[in-house]
Amino acid sequence: MARFEREPSEFVEKLVSLNRVSKTVKGGRVMKFAALMVVGDEKGRVGFGTGKAADDAIARLEKELAKAKKTALERGQKLSQAREKAARALQARVQDELRQLDMPKVQFETEFSPSQGEDGMEAGGLEQAQFLMSANLGEALKPIHKIASGGELARIMLALKNVLAEDDGIGSLVFDEVDTGVSGRAAQKIAEKMAQVARRKQVLCVTHLPQIAAMADTHFSVEKGERGGRTYTHVARLDRPGREQELSRLMAGSALTDALRQSAAELLSRAEKYRANLK
């Protein structure tokens, strides 16, 4: 075997050219070049091998490939077992969170399906996962993205973030309009859950619901406007009177009344009492 102290890429280009010639001469069938192969030795050097040297190199590489596949399969099976165990724990935790978010009949599961990769493996393991749910008693479990409403998706996202954030070391959580499609009792449940999470982590939330805004420890008003032909965003931290006014606006738009302000004040007081009783 003639060896060369050069990069393998120099020989890869040559093989690509030879393959093109092979396809042309043999009508599309890639030939096995026994007379000219790229062969590596034990020191990682690359060169051209002929005859028996090329066959030996192929046999060695096939043996190494079989060994690597066996190792990957064994590790993939261990990963699958760990995933199934974690999925059962996740299922119980998420269902508990969703019940607290006014979804008492919900069922939540993780479904695993075999990988479609070569040899039943891919970079992510031996299987693919998807979340299934049934929001109502008697309904079959189906993929979340196909059956969940906007409000259900919002609560599922909150539940998942809350469960996963407990062990991931993340110090801050951001919820952008997690209240989509939610109102009334469900909105109050979401507000209470976020207040609980905020005792352990920093929570930033963009919301248009008064129940959630009232539960915040700190409330900012964000407004967009125009000045001098340009668009600006104005952010202001609200004091207690400012919060009452903003909550009144969220409740009824621009038609503010004394009754609305009183309702906003009561909402703030209830939220403060709830937060004060949290551990």
* Major sheet: 3 strands, antiparallel
Using only C-alpha atoms, the radius of gyration works out to 31 Å
Which percent range describes the beta-strand content? 15-25%
SSE pattern, N- to C-terminal: EHEEHEEEHHEHEHEEHH
* Structural class computed from helices and strand pairing: alpha+beta
Question: Helical region count?
Answer: 8
Question: Which descriptor suits the 3D outline?
Answer: elongated
Estimate percent helicity.
40-55%
Distance between the termini: 74 Å
Uncertain runs with pLDDT below 50, 5 residues or more? Answer: 1-6, 21-39
Strand tally is 10
Which strand order does the major sheet show? 1-3-2
Q: What number is the mean pLDDT? A: 80
Give an account of the 3D structure.
It is a single chain. This protein is α+β, with helices and mostly antiparallel strands and 279 residues long. Helices cover 49% and strands 20% of the residues. The chain has eight helices and ten strands. It has helices at 9-25, 52-100, 144-147, 150-165, 184-197, 210-215, 240-252, 258-276, and strands at residues 2-4, 37-40, 46-49, 107-114, 127-134, 142-143, 172-176, 202-206, 220-227, 230-237. Strands 1-3-2 form a three-stranded antiparallel sheet. A hairpin with a 7-residue loop joins strand 5 (127-134) and strand 6. Helix 2 crosses helix 4 (150-165) and helix 7 crosses helix 8. The radius of gyration is 31 Å and the shape is elongated. The termini are far apart.
